[in-house]
Amino acid sequence: MLDLEYIDIAVIGAYFVCLFLIAIFVAKNSHKNQNAKGYFLGGKNMGWFVIGASLFASNIGSEHLIGLAGTAANSGVAVAQFELLAGIVLLLLGWVFVPFYLRSGVYTMPEFLELRYSKNTRAYLSVISIVAYILTKISVTIAAGGIIFQAMGIDFWVGALIIVVVTGLYTTIGGLKAVIYTDMLQMFVLIAGSLLITVIGLNHLGGWNVLVAGMDASYFNLWKPISNPDFPWTGIIFGAPILGVWYWCTDQFIVQRVLAARNIEQARKGSIFGGYLKMLPLLIFVIPGIIALALSQRGELLLNTPDDALPMLVKVLMPTGLKGLVLAGLLAALMSSLSSVFNSCSTIFTLDIYKKIKPESTEKHLVMVGRIATVGLVVFGILWIQFIDNISDQLFTYLQSVQAYISPPIAAVFLLGIFFKRLNSKGAMASMVTGFVLGIARLIGEVNKEQLQGAFFYFCDINYLHFAIFLFVICVAILILVSLLTNSPDYKKINDVTFNRLSMVDTRQDLVLSGILVCIIASIWIYFS
User: Based on the number of CB atoms within 10 Å of its own CB, is 408 exposed (0-12), middle (13-18) or buried (19 or more)?
Assistant: First the structure.
């Protein structure tokens, strides 16, 4: 229990009011919301700042709010590697993928796969994406929201219901434009609230030097040995970028923001800005986890589990009023993530599934279907709440790892598909199906690992980042081999979605900003080594 005062509740209430005012304002003043482009892609007139802010806000979920601080309290800053690598992968999104996505005029990632390969690849990615969103992103975000409200003295079920209904309401009303503009507000609230935790925590301890001096040096080392079960440096360098390419460059949940850009330049600038914002989690989530551990060692707070790190910091250090701001920031992160899931999931359902079944549907009808799909997801989310409490922590963790095991084949067909025209639909389907089978086999085997022996045990026990490398290599080999053994694709049809010398349009300013970001990441790697 966080023992909130009336002023804290007032701050949280003010946040909800601002959120709704923005959503209503956007919906009322956006006449373009009556067509598919307006509702699903925000009218395709978004600028770089709101795109970058939305990329950051929609990405921050419960694994950041609780997981980063908790893992840092347990093992140090190494968990921040994923955030730093995201900065590099976002540059890849802006410089490599964005030109093809925007030039092709697609609304969804499955639609892009159809242009590049075939209808079958589109159908595969559509189904996989929706199932993954429902089983992972929606469920975990609802659960985290319920837990935060529980800490505020509100029943878990009531809190989870508030998160689902409020988020679903403004998402349904305003479409992607409402999601993106509310994300921008949520970015400011999230950063402000989280930064306060770090500043007040360091000040309470006596400063950065006191924190470093009081902890084992390993807590401030980003680079772990190959034998490390969680963050082996080989897995970080070669495995994590594979998952990053899938998440940041091919997942509708994220890429829909750059698809809404008014042009390639704004989309690229938004990606670069998002890369800069991804440097913040090290400061606002990871470092607070170590601060919490330091305070627990001094007997100033109690950590029953590492995941208590951030909630306990809020309870012990935050004064009245600021506690409400921090909680508003946590809720902002969860709601922006959930609204993005609702919107991207309804977009895929409407345009990649429903429109395929009823191609004669009008623009207005598709918008209505998109809204109904969002309402359906809200209803499902409400019904799903009762099952969340019955799922064991271990099974819940396994459910989240589904994404890690299905991402390498998707990353392979997108990344190689852009650069190599010879790859065809047969190779793509063979690669994705093989990757899916191996990934699910790994997931099932991991659940029953204790009953396995020999090579089967090793297959299911290997670090998941190393497994991602293995799976990616297998999928690439199958993609290339099957493509070469079958007929060539129609090069004219795929010209706009494959590499040519006109694809890499650049500007000096963007190149300089990209170079500075790479230097910042390299500097952090050197400092924490």
Answer: buried
Give a yes or no: residue 288 inside a domain: yes
- Same domain for 485 and 365? no
How far apart, in whole angstroms, are the C-alpha atoms of residue 139 and residue 134?
7
Tokens of 70: 């908790």
Mean pLDDT value of segment 366-380: 87
- Residue 478 sits in which domain range? 401-498
pLDDT digits (tens, 9 = 90+) for 272-319: 999 999 999 999 999 999 999 999 999 888 888 887 888 888 888 888
What pLDDT shows up at residue 388? 58
Token pair of 451, please? 């009953």
Judge if 330 and 411 occupy the same domain.
Answer: no
What span, in angstroms and rounded, lies between the C-alpha atoms of 374 and 332?
19
User: CA-to-CA distance for 471 and 434, rounded, in angstroms?
Assistant: 9
* Predicted pLDDT at 431: 96
In this structure, are 325 and 456 located in the same domain?
no
> What pLDDT, on a 0 to 100 scale, did the predictor assign at position 503?
45
| CB-based contact 477:494 (threshold 8 Å) | no
Residue 40 resides in a domain: yes
Could you count the other beta carbons within 10 Å of the beta carbon of residue 140?
21
Domain count, the chain: 2
Neighbour-count burial for 373-391, b at 16+ CB within 10 Å, e otherwise: bbbebbeebbebbeebeee
Sign of the Cα torsion 116, 120, 121, 122 reads: positive
DSSP 125: H
> How crowded is residue 228: how many other Cβ atoms within 10 Å of its Cβ?
16
> Residue 489: helix, strand or coil by DSSP?
coil
Backbone angles phi, psi at 224, to 5 degrees: -110, 155
What's the pLDDT band for 519 if we cut at 50, 70, 90?
very high
